[in-house]
Amino acid sequence: MGRQPCCEKSGLNRGPWTIEEDHKLMTFILSNGIQCWRTVPKLAGLHRCGKSCRLRWINYLRPDLKRGALTEAEEEMIIQLHSRLGNRWSKIAAHFPGRTDNEIKNHWNTRIKKKLQVLSSNHTSHTPLQQYEDCEVKKEGGTMKPESATEQGEIKLELQGTLVFRDPKIPQFDGRFNYGLHEGSNMGPVEIQKADHTTTLFSEEISKPLPEDFLQQWIDSPLPWDFFSDLKEDT
DNA sequence: AAGTACAGCAACCGCTTATAA
DNA sequence: GTTATAAGCGGTTGCTGTACT
């Protein structure tokens, strides 16, 4: 029943790959292709687990890999995608031909995360909502629901709704936005997007503590539009 | 020059999902 | 429908090189 086990766990090489191992794996895959990772190390003459071979190929040996540091534009796109997809690195990596999920994950954890932390700590002096002060904003329905709560009292909410913007600088578009926040925190960026047009709004004005009654009031109310009091609302 | 701290990244671990038997 | 396994995925670890003291 079922399939054969992937590989023997004992007697296999571990740790960094040698040039010779790389060469064996690359030569084998280029001439035979990949049918089954389990059989690859055996057929290629490697003392490695199939899983390890797969990882080495995907993250390092694939000929279509793009080498070199990620560009500013790529970084910006990662931030945008991460705000929508969260830590789904493979989904994010799918938008970057030649880049691997591991590469993007590492880049996020070692660089972007820190960059954003610095940005958010400077956030109180940042008022990009002014950028949209000429906007007319129209609400078109929306829902809000508690997503999760922890024992530490951290509450995450999901808000979904539709905004229609009218702005001379931005063609009219509707958007879907989601965010999470917890008691006493600043709310993160609110992303407004449609098709290939994505932008992000920030505001320190929308930082609110969330005592239970206030939270309930929020949950009960159809739309928490107080968050957007800075914007002219066209109802 | 030596020791320590830190950053970056490759590789591993363990869980989840898809699929063959 | 159930079970076992391969493949995929995200979190984490640990090695290596570099900067700092």
TrEMBL record:
Domain Myb-like span(s) in chain numbering: 9-61, 62-112
GO molecular function ontology, one term from the record: DNA binding
Domain HTH myb-type: 9-61, 62-116
Principal location class: nucleus
Keywords: DNA-binding, Nucleus, Repeat
Kinase in keyword set: no
UniProt cross-references to Pfam families, sorted A to Z: Myb_DNA-binding
Compartment annotation: Nucleus
Keyword presence, Repeat: yes
PANTHER family in UniProt: HOMEODOMAIN-LIKE PROTEIN-RELATED (PTHR47999:SF126), TRANSCRIPTION FACTOR MYB8-RELATED-RELATED (PTHR47999)
Protein name in UniProt: Uncharacterized protein
UniProt organism field: Escallonia herrerae
